User: Fold SAM-dependent methyltransferase from Neobacillus kokaensis.
Amino acid sequence: KLSARLAKVAQYVPKNAKVADIGSDHAYLPCYLAKNKGIAFAIAGEVAAGPFQSAVRNVSAEGLSETISVRLGDGLEVVRPGEVDCITISGMGGALIASILENGKDKLGSVKRLILQPNISAVSIRKWFLDNGWMLTAEEILEEDGKIYEVLVGEKGESPLMPYDSDIEAGLLLGPYLVKEQNAVFKKKWLHEKKNWERIYQQLENAAETTDAMEKKQELIHKMQLVGEVLKVEN
Ligand code: SAM
Assistant:
């Protein structure tokens, strides 16, 4: 059975899509899409030999070799221009996901939708969207096995902007849709982050007063205030 995390990614893949799943590991997601979502075609891309072999084995065992092409390579280098209209990247840090998109920009011409699931630093992806003419169209946050995950969906838009009513900085860090919704998982995540920052702040308070430490403390205070205002809790 597919994890709730990958099921959430799958939910945003359109029927008949031509999908590239980058960093596919065992290729669970493309296999699920081929069996349940009526996709036209998928590429399972992997940079590491072990996961690549495991993807090859799974796709073959499921009898899906006609629909899923498993390819060894770094990021979007496994995709030929025009080959796909949807890209999924999950289970990595947001900065790595953003760098894969940045390095593979020449492959994005035919791509209409990006479905990205950063384990950390979703802010890196929101910034990349903003800088590169992608519109953030949906966000999800969910908890599974004690871990909290975010899913970000982007579409090439007329307007490259996110739906900001208010604070662009809070929107980039926490996610404009998630801020609006403020569900229980969202609150849990950011209260946890805020506690963590408070702890680091205390450690810096007890350490030597270097310029570096002072700058870090300023930054932490700023982020704690930002999150405090969004969650409407005391700082
Ligand atoms: N996408 C699957 C998921 O969400 O369950 C697997 C996540 S796994 C933690 C991350 C995978 O990404 C690893 O198999 C790793 O080898 C692969 N990976 C990391 N950097 C990559 C890159 N630049 N190009 C392709 N694959 C990459």
Notes: The mean pLDDT is 94.
